Write a sequence for this structure.
């Protein structure tokens, strides 16, 4: 009788645990699904923000060896000997707007004194840090010429340094 | 394998971290189960034990529970919907369209919110009628009935204020018609209408007021009154189950033991 | 003869000396509950609640997946759709508005209904729950006859024809109850005989609520004119 009790005991336990496992299993699946769908729901598919792509106009409007800052879009359009390129104007330290110091030939940030190269000098590329607390150099932004012959800059895409657009 | 899973959870429950969160630990004993209710800030609204007959389905059809369930669904879906909704004119309509066509799962959430709202209104009426027909409003439960009536009104108001939020033709004119009824109140009708809409017509002010009413004022009031409603159930002696119900069932099964109110059954 | 109290004897002599108690009928429910089987809230009650809410949730989720919430065009204050209907739970009210001025249908009627609901538990006649016609039968029968005729006439005068069938049904059932008793042969007649006044009034209210809401939902078209549900407008 002891054996029988143990037998039925085992059977009862396994049925109970089966349903417990089934229940918990479905609950976990449902929870995982809910989490996935919630994440999707919470990430907006549509943003009410201006496009990161800027139309900078005709290349002719940028003379050779010129540095033009557009404070509204936060970039520098630079026409150097090697060609055109765009640098981010927002300091990589804490997000302040940098300024081009023509007399010094550098870009400087007023907030905490970071300074950046704007021309190639020796080993240093445009955008590299001269001094200051900024952790990274000013990134180069993707630039191309569109079908109308306009210079285009995509602020959301960074490119490796020293990639010039030749017109 | 099942045994080790249980063991694992039992071990988990003995850890310092677990016991720091759930102070009385957890387990299967009656003590632990009582503590799980009594030591929990949310659950100790309930008593640790309930009369078995209270849980009979035929007594209440669980309508009160179901009404509360729809309320929970509405709060959760409502808060989620609020993340994409600007209560301004005409942005509100654009946002409702966005929710339906652009936002992932937006259509589903909006549908769920809408149908739960209709379900809640229906269930709260059904709950009221069921409580009435089984006489569960009788003393000492009179005041709980009154709270229930107030909750009914709040439910209707919640549904009404929410109706305006999509800012479509259906919403706008339903609310215009409804708020014009307020004008019919003697003496203060005009004032009520003006205060309700924040103006003389259903416009941006009205939308904002209805939004605040729908999302903040009425839900907070509802939560407070629901807590009182549950508390009163407990204090009034638990859910009312009519004496004759179990007597009929028991009489069918065994000799009646409830003939007189205070004679106790001989055997356990 | 109906005594107003019940006597009983506490049989556990060890716990308490023999005593005889007189308890008036139908007093506070708390007095009636003496020795009842109790179970733990967790898990018995909480699991039942959880299952009930889960089933509700599944039903609502399926509905939400299958049916879309309506969305019409942008709100246009200059263009009133025809008909302009309130949400379904107010359609009963809107139907009443068709017959009576706003002051009556919109303020008086709902106000009185809410008031009546609130005071139900404070009236003795609702607490006693005795069959309406089991006491004072002749007088109550007369009052019932007068009131039901008056209500029907009132409804007809004000053209509220939709509410008449419900009233007549209740009146008929009440009449059957008046001529039944707890000793009647059929279960139905015993059931009706036992129903108190509050039951009749509430049931009448429930029927009219359903009828008026149904009419407002399905039978009203442009200009609040009478249409049949399958007629498109």
């Amino acid at each position: 009788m002891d054996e029988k009790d143990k037998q039925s005991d085992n059977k009862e336990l396994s049925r109970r645990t089966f349903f417990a496992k089934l229940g918990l299993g479905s609950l976990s699946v449902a929870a995982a699904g809910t989490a996935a769908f919630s994440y999707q729901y919470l990430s907006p598919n549509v943003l009410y923000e201006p496009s990161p792509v800027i139309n900078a106009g005709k290349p002719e409007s940028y003379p050779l060896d010129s540095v033009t800052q557009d404070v509204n879009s936060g970039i520098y359009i630079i026409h150097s000997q090697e060609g055109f390129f765009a640098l981010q104007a927002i300091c990589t330290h804490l997000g302040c707007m940098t300024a081009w110091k023509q007399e010094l030939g550098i870009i400087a940030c007023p907030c905490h004194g970071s300074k950046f190269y704007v021309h190639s000098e020796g080993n240093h590329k445009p955008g590299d840090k001269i001094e200051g607390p900024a952790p990274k150099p000013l990134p180069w932004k993707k630039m191309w010429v569109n079908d109308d012959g306009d210079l285009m800059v995509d602020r959301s895409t960074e490119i490796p340094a020293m990639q010039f657009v030749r017109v | 394998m099942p045994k080790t899973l249980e063991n694992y959870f039992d071990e988990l429950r003995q850890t310092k971290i677990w016991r720091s969160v759930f102070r009385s630990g957890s387990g299967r004993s009656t003590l632990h189960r009582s503590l799980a209710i009594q030591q929990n800030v949310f659950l100790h609204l309930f008593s640790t034990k309930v009369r078995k007959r209270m849980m009979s389905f035929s007594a209440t059809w669980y309508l009160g529970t179901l009404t509360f369930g729809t309320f929970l669904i509405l709060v959760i879906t409502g808060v989620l919907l609020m993340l994409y909704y600007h209560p301004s004119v005409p942005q509100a309509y654009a946002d409702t369209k966005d929710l339906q066509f652009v936002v992932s799962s937006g259509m589903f959430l909006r549908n769920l919110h809408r149908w739960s709202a209709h379900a809640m209104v229906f269930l709260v009426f059904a709950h009221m009628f069921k409580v009435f027909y089984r006489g569960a409003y009788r003393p000492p439960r009179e005041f709980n009935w009154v709270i229930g009536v107030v909750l009914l009104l709040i439910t209707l108001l919640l549904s009404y204020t929410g109706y305006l939020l999509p800012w479509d033709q259906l919403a706008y004119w339903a609310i215009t018609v409804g708020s014009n009824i307020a004008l019919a109140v003697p003496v203060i009708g005009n004032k009520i209408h003006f205060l309700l809409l924040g103006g003389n017509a259903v416009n941006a002010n009205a939308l904002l007021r209805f939004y605040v009413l729908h999302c903040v004022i009425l839900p907070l009031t509802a939560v407070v009154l629901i807590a009182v409603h549950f508390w009163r159930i407990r204090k009034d002696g638990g859910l009312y189950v009519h004496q004759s119900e179990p007597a009929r069932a028991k009489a069918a099964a065994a000799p009646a033991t409830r003939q007189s109110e205070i004679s106790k059954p001989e055997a356990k | 003869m109906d005594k107003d109290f019940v006597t009983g004897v506490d049989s556990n002599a060890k716990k308490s000396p023999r005593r005889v108690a007189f308890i008036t009928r139908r007093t506070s429910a708390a007095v009636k509950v003496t020795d009842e089987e109790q179970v733990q809230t967790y898990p018995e009650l909480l699991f039942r609640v959880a299952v009930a809410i889960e089933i509700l949730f599944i039903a609502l989720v399926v509905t939400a997946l299958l049916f879309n919430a309506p969305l019409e065009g942008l709100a246009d204050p200059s263009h009133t759709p025809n008909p302009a209907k309130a949400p379904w739970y107010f359609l009963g009210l809107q139907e009443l508005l068709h017959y009576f001025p706003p002051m009556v249908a919109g303020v008086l009627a709902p106000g009185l209904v809410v008031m009546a609901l609130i005071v139900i538990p404070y009236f003795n006649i609702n607490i006693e729950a005795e069959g309406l016609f089991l006491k004072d039968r002749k007088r109550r029968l007369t009052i019932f006859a007068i009131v039901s005729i008056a209500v029907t006439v009132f409804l007809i005068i004000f053209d509220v024809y939709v509410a008449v069938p419900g009233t007549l049904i209740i009146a008929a059932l009440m009449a059957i109850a008046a001529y039944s008793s707890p000793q009647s042969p059929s279960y139905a007649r015993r059931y009706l005989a036992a129903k108190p006044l509050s039951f009749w009034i509430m049931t009448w209210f429930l029927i009219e609520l359903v009828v008026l809401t149904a009419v407002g939902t399905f039978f009203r078209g442009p200009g609040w004119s009478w249409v049949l549900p399958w007629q498109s407008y």
Remarks:
- Chain C is about 55% helix and 5% strand.
